[in-house]
Amino acid sequence: MTLLTFTLNGKKQSVDVAPDTPLLWVIRDTLKLTGTKYSCGKGLCGSCTVHVDGKPRKSCNLPVSKVEGKTVLTIEGLGKRSLHPVQKAWIEDEVAQCGYCQPGQIMTAVALLEDNAHPNDADIEDAMKGILCRCGTYQRIKKAIHTAAKEA
Amino acid sequence: MNSIESKLLDRRQFLKLSTGSTAALVLGFCWPLSGKDSLSDEDVIFVPNAYLKIHANDTVSVIMPRSEMGQKIYTALPQIVAEELEADWSKIKVIQGDLNQVYGSQTTGGSASVRTQYDRLRKAGATAKAMLIQAAATTLNVPGSEFYAESGFVHHSGSNRKLSFGSLVAMANTLPVPTDVILKDPKTFRIIGKAYKSLDGIGKVEGSIKFGYDFELPEMLTAVVERIPKYGGSMSSFDATEALKVPGVIKIAPISAGVAVLADNSWAALQGRKKLEVKWNDGPHAKLNSKKISEDFKAALEQDGSIIRSEGNAEEALKTAKQQIELTFEVPYLDHAPQEPNNCTAHIHDGICEIWAPTQNPGAAWWAAKSVTEFADDNIKVHTLRMGGAFGRKLQNDFVRDAVEVAQLTKLPVKVIRTRTEDLKNGFYRPSTVHQIQVGLDRSKKPVSWIHKLSGPQDGWAPIITGGADELAYGIPNQRVSYVMTEQPIPIGAWRSVAHTQNAFVHESMIDEVARQTGRDPLAFRRDLLKNQPRHLGVLDLVEKHSKWDKPLKDTQARGLSVHYSFNSYVAIVVEISKAKKGINVERVTAAIDCGTVINPDGVRAQVEGGIVMGLTAALYGEITIDQGEVEQTNFHNYRLLKMDKMPEINIHIVQSTEPPTGVGEPPVPPTPPALMNAIAALTGKRITRLPLKGQLG
């Protein structure tokens, strides 16, 4: 076990865990934030996507030791005061079906828009194609990203 | 427990729960639900029946008899209640109902939640409204006939007095429950038919809603199971020495599915499992592979089949036909792969077995706990949790059984989780099937004989492979449909739209091939054979118009059509494709659905979109294969799902109808793969008879 410190959703957190523990399990099991989801465990589906220093990262295969001293943002920290424009667009366009992958979709979409405020379809597909949705909500995800881009 | 046993148990449990469903319905309207079992607030609550609680603060809680897995019944079912209740939509809250016989069957499947609950939820709302009106009449000492309800208030027509529902709960509680309520004229609906946003939409974007995987109890342990790798295998011995050294690992013990590792957190359990050393016995199927299974199914086609449809004399009509067309189709096993892998939490304490399961089938969950613990019926409690997708997989109770067996090893509550690999390798798969079809045509190139023989795995329940095969809508005078089932150790189960996934592919590919070989337009050909099927024609008309079926395409493009009836609904699909550097691109999908009365049109569209994506995924990539007695697929790299960059544009059109509501979740899936394959036949001349498409276009 190792004592590791990072900033989570604006707050400094110290955790005493095995340093190879994926960030996902530290967030979920140790810090009890369950909005970030387990689905594949191998970085293949993106349900576990969080931001590390502002960049989207799949947390299921990212050892927590790699975020030592860094800043992590999860879905819970995204719209703390009021909903983020991407979250609002998700509601407006009624994106979610089961909702399980949507935190990962939203975190990826937020990172895309921070990088590129007015993405075209190809930009969106390129940024989002690694995030799987078994319910098949992709058409609405794309639409909602355009909606959010307009609103922002 | 094998799939047959599980199926039988599920059905026994279902029968147990649905015995005397009339009684259950009646009970549903007088069952005294205690106010404290689901809500903590202490206000006065009016509980007119098992579906509703109305609170003094005007909140209306609608209790869900079925489970939510993405099909949005948490919004559609409250719309039905709120309509008849004349509720204020902003005051509606949803509570998941636990397993309780008062609701009859609580199995969520067969695209049945809306269509089976429609009447009783309307009645539940109307009953409550009648009682609130009576409460207002009693309170104001004016005849009840002078009142009407609207947006959460009871209004007095003769004056401008109005009383909120919340202000009437105490009085309403004292009144008898009427049995003869009048339902609204659908022409006056103001909530049913409207595209209300999901009641749980905010929770889904905030990450605050809890799925089974997120469920937590104080002091809860997490466990994983090292599973018997091969079908028919068993555990020989295990050495836990190294595994127990992993910090956080608490206990290791065998259960029927393999060896369980209990830990105080998920990662420790997973790491502990890695360090386990287990010796397995291979069992009788250790060499089994997909090629052998396919050969078994093809060989079985030589046997006489059980007949499920026979009209006229199909053999004779084929023999004397002017032209015969014969094709053999084959579809693979498929996994459901919901985004949330299977999991279940159980706690055995004080002689009680309590279960928290993300399940489509709380009755089967109950049965799993009963059969493991043999506790008295009342000492088994099932709490239904929200599912992160299910698609039929969570009808099974294997994951509940795991949890109950693991819970027997500890006094603490324990959540048993599965990884993606475990989920893919331990599925209850959409069965693989082989189909031989012969069609005979007369001189005018009209089909006069249809002979369809199916071969697939045995399960004790033939409709798992035959469903839809016996319902060919096309007017062909001589038909013979039969099936042969072969014992295979691969567990099978209902996969979104069950056997319709295979049989629509076969029907719609074959009809299209006949049209092609006889030089007919696939749409005109279908219309001729569907003269007596007005609702099939209705969806065909809609897709014809919106897909611009008659508009010529470039040589590098093509359209494919299909139409299919399932779960009482009608769906027609047109898929438009174009040639790509390698293979094809799916450019556009136009769909039309007739699902009777629509509760929430946006919810219908969402389900159709999702069904099309699931159908395309199956058609393009979906395949579970077996080698050396086990499933080969281990994660999303070798069990691919459609990604956003391969998404076609999808346009959906809904038939306006006043017929009763029918299924929505499943019906869009079956017609999608054949529409794609029919487009490929139109573009390339190649008839795809084996799914998935993967690798077949060079």
Question: What keywords describe this structure?
Answer:
heterodimer; A: 152 residues; alpha+beta; Ubiquitin-like (UB roll); DNA polymerase, domain 1; 2 domains; 5 strands; B: 698 residues; Aldehyde Oxidoreductase, domain 4; 3 domains; seven-stranded mixed β-sheet; five-stranded mixed β-sheet; 18 helices; 27 strands; 24% strand; disordered N terminus
Task: Please provide a written account of the structure.
The complex is a heterodimer of chains A (152) and B (698). In chain A, 37% of the residues lie in helices and 16% in strands. Chain A is α+β, with helices and mostly antiparallel strands and 152 residues long. Chain A has 2 domains: 2-77, Roll (Ubiquitin-like (UB roll)), CATH 3.10.20; 85-151, DNA polymerase, domain 1, CATH 1.10.150.120. A 5-stranded mixed β-sheet of chain A has the order 2-1-5-3-4, with helices on both faces. Chain B is of the alpha+beta class and 698 residues long. Chain B folds into 3 domains: 3-192, Aldehyde Oxidoreductase, domain 4 (2-Layer Sandwich), CATH 3.30.365.10; 213-283 and 342-417, 2-Layer Sandwich (Aldehyde Oxidoreductase, domain 4); 301-333 and 429-684, Aldehyde Oxidoreductase, domain 4 (2-Layer Sandwich), CATH 3.30.365.10. Chain B has 18 helices and 27 strands. Chain B has a 7-stranded mixed β-sheet with strand order 10-11-8-18-15-16-17. A 5-stranded mixed β-sheet of chain B has the order 13-21-20-19-14. Chain B starts with a helix and ends in a 14-residue tail after the last helix. The interface between A and B is large, with 59 and 64 residues.
